[in-house]
Amino acid sequence: MSDVPSASEVGSIMDTFSSIGTRRSIRWYEPHKSVEKWKVQAMLEAARLSPTAGNFNGQRAIVVYRDEDPEIWEFISDWSQITTQMAPVLIFWCYDMANYDTMGQSIHDLLRTGALDKAHGWEYDRVSRLFPLAAMLPDAVLHRLAAIDLGNAIQNACLVATSLGLGTCLNGASGGARRNTKAKFNLPDTYVFSWLMTVGYPAESMDGGGARSRPPFGTMFFEKQVGNAFPRDPEVVKLLEDLNMLQPAGPLPGRLEEINKLTRRFGLGDEWLTDWQLEESQLGDLAGDKKPAPLSADAVQASVAGASADPSGFTLKPTVKREEIQKYREEKGIGDAD
Fold this sequence. Notes:
single chain; alpha+beta; NADH Oxidase; 3 domains
C-alpha cells in the first residue's frame, strides 16, 4: 500500500489506558472521509492476535466499502441504517466452527513453539488422545466458546481503531439480515455471522459526549464471594483518571446541541431531533427508572441554532421502519427462508 506511513510518521498513538477510556460506540461519521486501508489492516492484525481458547483461531471478518457496494442496504437491520449510511467501512464479523476439527493440531503447534510445556502436563500424544473430544461437546458450549473468542478479537480491533483516531460501533442484525449476509458473502455453512461493525472518522466528538454509564463498581466485582464488593481504592481511581482511562461520564455539556446539529447537518427533519432532557445515569438505581423530561419546542430549536447543511450536500435517509422493510421484502419476493 502506497499510503502506509513509517512508525515515526504515525505520530503519537494512544496508549492502552487512553484507548480503553476513550473508546465509544460512535454513531455519527464523516461520510466522505475515507479510512486508510493500512488502518483497517491494523485492526484486523490486532484481531488476529487476540486471545483464543485452545488456539481455536476461529475469528473471521469480511471488509466491505460502502461506496463500492450500495446494495449493502439489503443486509442491514433497521436499527443500524443511519450509522451504516455514514460509515465508509463495514466489517462483518463471524466465527468458523470448522476450526474445532483441527483444534488438536493447533494445540500441538503451541507445544512445538514452546508456548505449552511438559511441566504443565502437556504432551503431544496426550493432546492427540484428548482433543478430538472437544468437537463432541454440545453445540451450545462450542458456540459460546467461539463467540467469546470473537468478542476478544473485536475488542482488540476496536481499541486499535480508537488509538488511530477512528470510531467504531457494533450493530445487530435481524434474522433476515443474517440469512442475506450468508448468501451475499458466500459464507460456508460452518460460518456464524455475529456482528456488523461500522468504521470511520467521527463526525461527533471522539469522547461521544462522555463515558457511557455503567453500574456501580461494587455491584459488578467481588472479593472472596458474591455480595462482598471488591474494595474500590480512591487512589487507584485517581491514577486511572490521570492515565485517561476513567473519564467524565456523559452527558457532557453541549451534547444535546452536538447530536441535534448533526441531525440537522445531514438533512434529517425536525421530527428526528432529540427532544428530551439529557440527564445523569440512573444505572445505580434501576428501580427508579423514569422517562426523561420532554423539552419545549423552543428548547429543541435552540439546540440547533447555527446548524448548517453538510457542505458536500450529503443527506441521510431516515431510519426505515419495520413495516417498510417488510413491504420491501414483499416487493422483492424475499421470503422468511431467504
